[in-house]
Design a protein that fits this description.
Blueprint lengths: L9 H6 L8 H8 L4 H6 L6 H7 L7 E4 L7 H15 L5 E4 L4 H10 L5 E6 L5 H8 L7 E6 L6 H7 L5 E6 L12 H9 L5 E5 L5 H10 L5 E3 L10 H10 L2 E3 L10 H10 L8 H8 L2
Parallel strand pairs: 1-2, 2-3, 3-4, 4-5, 5-6, 6-7, 7-8
Length: about 290
């Protein structure tokens, strides 16, 4: 993704008239290479011709609001709403690590064609906010969720997303303490997501029982990523079944060098985990 530091300023645009004289289709191609914040905060301010191109709905089919932690969350939230408005209902993909339940509702009410959603579930975004969003997205095919300290039931999400083909669930080690059994996620997937083709469960606490349920009930599954799933014990028929059935299989001990998420996970897991007797108090304090 291009950096905003490479963008011409308004003065440079005036000095080099070639920027403003670029064909609209070439300018559009440039804009599609930039992230959402770069476009709204920089590119559209370069010159009037760029401003006009930046209003084109095709630029806003994909919105990426991640990796802007140094910026004010409320400002980014307003920016996200503006980007959704410009999509004019054509938004098909969004990735975000900021927001609130009200922002999720705003997106849901204006994005009937959304097919791919990536979200980090941290306060003030709640599980109910996610469920209400998904319930309004009948075309959703891909869901990626990063969660920590937040209980999340997958059955309501699966029932609301009959077209779901890709699920990526990344969780810190502590999140497992919020569940009655370590196979809650796996059993929710097995019961409500039969159309899955690609499943990624990073740092999940599922066991062989949960894995077997997924293989039994997700007949179209081709890609399975179980890295950092320390409760899985691959051997015998279960291992053979995974190797013969799946086109791509990532084992619990496979390298996570391509997953920056695990830098965060390692930091959480290096801290002292709560004992089982404290689960109720954690549940009260951390679930919104």
């Amino acid at each position: 993704m291009a950096s905003s530091s490479c963008m011409p300023t308004r003065k440079q645009c005036e000095d080099l008239s070639g920027w403003s004289e670029l064909p609209p289709e070439l300018t559009l191609s440039i804009m599609l290479r930039l992230d959402t914040v770069d476009i709204l905060d920089n590119a559209q301010k370069v010159c009037s011709s760029w401003w006009r191109v930046c209003k084109h709905p095709s630029i806003w089919r994909k919105i990426d609001m991640r990796s802007r932690t140094a910026m004010d969350g409320h400002y980014l939230g307003r920016m996200c709403r503006h980007a959704v408005d410009r999509s004019q209902g054509g938004l098909v993909e969004i990735r975000m690590n900021i927001g609130s339940d009200s922002l999720l509702e705003y997106i849901a009410d204006r994005s009937p064609n959304l097919r791919s959603l990536g979200l980090e579930l941290f306060y003030p975004i709640s599980y109910n906010g996610l469920v209400n969003l998904v319930a309004k997205l009948p075309l959703l095919e891909e869901l990626e969720v990063v969660r920590a300290f937040l209980k999340m039931e997958l059955k309501p999400i699966g029932r609301a997303s009959p077209k779901l083909k890709i699920l990526k669930l990344k969780c810190t080690g502590w999140s497992s303490f919020l569940y009655k059994t370590v196979d809650d996620d796996a059993l929710g997937i097995a019961e409500t997501m039969p159309e899955l083709r690609h499943l990624q469960l990073l740092g999940n606490k599922l066991t062989n029982t949960g894995l077997t349920a997924i293989l039994d009930n997700c007949p179209h599954l081709e890609h399975l990523d179980l890295r950092k799933c320390s409760n899985i014990k691959l051997s015998g028929d279960l291992e053979k079944r995974c190797l013969e059935r799946l086109k791509e299989f990532r084992r619990p001990n496979d390298s996570t060098d391509d997953c920056p998420f695990f830098d965060i996970l390692s930091a959480f897991e290096s801290a002292k985990e709560p004992d089982n007797n404290s689960v109720d108090s954690i549940d009260e304090l951390l679930l919104w």
